[in-house]
Amino acid sequence: MSEFIDEKREAASEYEAIMASQHDDMKAFKESLNKLISVDSNYLDGYNTLYSIALSEEDFLGAEIMLNRAFDKALQLVGNSDGETWPKELSWQNKSNQHIIRTFLNKSIDFWMEDKWDEAKNILTFLNNTNPKEGLGFDFYLLAVSHKRVYSDFLDEYTDNGIPNKEGLAWFERNSKASK
Fold this sequence. Notes:
Layout: H1 10-20, H2 26-39, H3 45-56, H4 60-78, H5 98-113, H6 117-130, H7 138-146, H8 151-158, E1 159-160, E2 163-164, H9 166-179
Antiparallel strand pairs: 1-2
Helix pairs in contact: 1-2, 2-3, 3-4, 4-5, 5-6, 6-7
């Protein structure tokens, strides 16, 4: 399969406008995101944001539904109907692909949190292989999943708000060399 580049979507600029607005009324904010999804169900950041909101509200079923909808759409968009056939490239540098990459990252982390190591590793390997020099942390997460590190423990020990800390960078350096 060759390089995938998603089409430019009007929903992307609508999403940016929604995100730039005030979010004092959470119900109205969620309604705006749901409306955006109804306008273009293949623009995935509406789902991704509703997923994050549901997690923060401890609505785990709602979060799972949003993430699974986004993930299914993402697989359809890139032509991966079997979960194994990835495009040769899905570059973060192409802004129109970023909503798809965010969805794949969210799903890989979801698999990781559920100790579904192979599923998480499959997605993270794809993301890392198609974006090796982007500095997006796919290699960091991939190594942690390969070592079957518990997600919450790993974040607590090796990151500050999801960004690798000094200990995390040292851990990555030691273990990435040992893996080669």
